[in-house]
Amino acid sequence: METLKGEHIYLRALEPEDLNYIHAIENDEHLWELSNTQTPYSRYILEQYLENSHRDIYEVKQLRLVISTYQHQAIGLIDLFDFDFKNNHAGVGILIQETQNRQQGYGKEALQLLINYSFNQLNLHQLYCNITEDNQASLNLFKNQGFEIVGVKKDWLFSNNKYKNEYFLQLINN
Predict the structure, then answer these.
(1) How far is CA 18 from CA 59, 64, 73, 96, 105, in A?
(2) Which branch of life, at top level (predicted)?
(3) I need a labelling partner for 164 at 20 to 30 A (CA). Which of 13, 120, 138, 171 fits?
(4) Residues near 53 by Cβ (< 8 Å), separated by ≥ 6?
(5) Residue 76 belongs to a domain with what CATH number?
(6) Total domain count for the chain?
């Protein structure tokens, strides 16, 4: 689908050969705060997840796509989650795995592709995300794509022995 192809990256469906990549991401404790994960995932559970990843977004209420370079290197993941087709909105999550691939424009391009796909193919009215107050890179990414901070959840997450606020951002398709 051309709507998922950008200048430097493209978004693609999960494949069985992504098992090791997904396993590495889901079991990296440094990333657990981003997904509110508390426990590791087994290869068995992730294999089942991959086997069911073909299911329709209207059925499973989630769409996870791999951010890939044109050299076919997976560099991250971008998700639509809590897909609500009655109210036409979904949450967005994005992760660029390796530090050297961050701040290169890949996240911006992936988010632009997903926004376009969400509004023009899925006919969503709005997208939202939740970002901790100390994740300035993600705040900048989403705000630069038109997301607005519309609320703050005080002391929402407990991490490294302290509570953190989490911002709620929305992008409404007018």
Answers:
(1) 22, 12, 11, 15, 23
(2) Bacteria
(3) 171
(4) 13, 14, 64
(5) 3.40.630.30
(6) 1
